Each structure stands twice: as C-alpha cells, then as structure tokens.
Amino acid sequence: MTGTPAGAPADAPRPNRHARRTRPTTRRDHVTEVQPLKALDGRPLTLVHVQGRHPPTRGPVIVVHGAGVRAELFRPPLPRTFVDALLDDGWDVWLLNWRASIDLDPVPWTLDQAAAYDHPAAVAHVLDATGADRLKAVVHCQGSTSFTMAMAAGLLPEVDTVVSNAVSLHPVVPRLSTFKIGTLAPLISRVTPYLSPAWGDRPEGVVSRLMVWGVRATHPECRNPVCRMVSFTYGSGRPALWSHANLDEATHEWIRGEFAEVPMTFFAQMNRCIQAGHLVPTGAVEALPASFVARAPRTDARFVLVAGRDNRCFLADSQRRTFEFLQRHRPGRDSLHVLPGYGHLDVFLGRRAATETYPLILEELAR
C-alpha cells in the first residue's frame, strides 16, 4: 500500500513517522474513565476517556461508532487496537457512546437527533474537560453520517479534521441492500420496532426466531449466528461488514457481544437517503438545513474519507461521491483513500489493521 497527499484519491496508507519508540501500548495499559453527559435534548450519553502510560502530547480526538454497536468496538481483542495506536501517537482519546450505542437504553433515534443534539454536546464536553479549543474526530458508518450532517450544518466549528470511514454525505449500497431497506424493512417495521443481530444468539419472540431461521438458511457461510445476522441487517455480503480472512478467531468470537438493537426509524431515514443519493434530514430538527448538498459544508475542517474497496455495506462509491462533492466546492482541501482488501469494520478490526490501516489514519490526523 502507498499513500497520497491531501486532495488526491489513494489506494492505501503511508507509514506513520510519529509513533513512539517505546514498548507499544496494550489494553492492560489503558486507564479508562466513563464520563456521563447529556445530549442537547436531554438524552443520556457517555464519553469513555482512555489514557495510556504517558500523558498525551497532542490534542483531543473523539472517536464515534456506528449504529447498534458501542464505543468498545474500537478495543477488540487484538494485540494492537486502534485505541492503542492513538495513545502511542500521543492523542488524548475520547470514545463517544451516542444514542445509537447498545450501552445506553434503546430509543427510536434518527440521524438528525444525533447530528443536532449528541455530537455538539460531546464536542463541547471534551473541549471543556481538556481545555482545548479545537479537536479532531474519527467517525465510522452512522456515526460518520450523523457527524457529517452536524459539520455540514455548521454545528461543530471547533472540529478541524474529520476522518470518516465507509460513508459520509452520499450513501451508496448494493442492489440487494436497496431492495432490503426499501421493501423488506417497511414490512419488518410493522411487526417489530427494531432489528438486533444479537438475536442470532438470543432470539426474543416469534418474529426474531423466524428471522434467525431465515438468515440461517440463506447465510451458510459462517457458524457464528451473530455474524450471519449482521450480514442480514447491514448489507449484502457473505459476510457484509468484514472479510472472514481479515478477522482473527478471537475477534470473530468477541464480535458476538458487540451488536444489539437498531430502530426501524433509522432504516426508514436511510432508505430515503439512499433513494435521494445523499443524506436527507427528516425535517423534525430545526437546527439542520433542508439540504446538505445544496451548498458547500459550513465548516473549514478537512475531511479524510476512507473506504474499503470490498465494502458490501456501503460501496466505496459512497466516499468517492462525497469527495467529488467536496472537490467542487473546495478543491485540494480534502482527501480520499480507498483501501484494497478491506470492507467495512475490518478497517478497524482487521488482524493486519495495525500495520495496514492505522498508520494512514494517524498520518492524516497529524497532517
């Protein structure tokens, strides 16, 4: 893999020149503090502040998970996690549990609510706690779409760099996913208010048992029942969110406990976004514009768009289209990296991510 300067698409990362030359940080070195906060609409959230063996030498970075998972997603049982890499590079690390987190009480959320209420509150909390006046963000999947909505609306002026994985302003999905979210999801919403990949291990009632049976019949590629349910819920691949070749056995087993409820309110909004070809607000939150693509984003922050070439949840064209949109409005400011051999979550969870994907993200954060 090779890298690229900002403003030009790339297929891979460059080596990180800023890594500390001491013993690498591991999970046993983490000092973890969970700090409660409230979203601007009063919804309880948490920020997980992680420190390592040394005080940070750089500013704060907030890391945001996707739908139906949690902040712990970035600390899998790998010898070296993404959090370890951030700590060793000197960052002050904050992991956000926004309203889509399975560590919080489940609610029927929308991307609008996360954009207008969760992310501004989290950024303000981190800045107040650290005394910094600026911060950087690494955002994934629906944490990325909602965070990008907030950025485009001008709600996060203190954020100067955003590393976005998988999707940001322009969701593009495989044809089968278009069918599932446009036809199956409305039918499913009539009988259940949410979907949960955790049903693979712990079905809840007749509806979930029928779904698990159907998924078992159509996804014979894996013995992990949650992995199979993840593919049904989030994409069109076998599996959808990673390549089995990219996950070690410990991470593949651990992932069974990292997925739970996703409300059908989200799928309804994402279906409208996919049909429109770009993010579409529900119109229920006044702080957001009627369109996110009618004009340039209301931010001076630099966007680093990352896409796994093999992503079967959101196709790499998702990030390419957003990059083209940004280039039309502010050429040369932002960058795009398409990673061969990677899909959706294995960008962070892959067995070789520590040497193949983390260095790219660290390099872009430090640029």
Automatic annotation (TrEMBL):
InterPro entries: AB_hydrolase_1, AB_hydrolase_fold, Cholesterol_Oxidase. Residues 1-13 have a biased composition (Low complexity). GO terms for molecular function: hydrolase activity. Residues 60-167 form the AB hydrolase-1 domain. Keywords: FAD, Flavoprotein, Hydrolase, Oxidoreductase. Residues 15-25 have a biased composition (Basic residues). Signal peptide: none annotated. Its cofactor is FAD. Residues 1-30 are annotated as: Disordered. It comes from the Bacteria. Belongs to the GMC oxidoreductase family. This is Alpha/beta fold hydrolase.
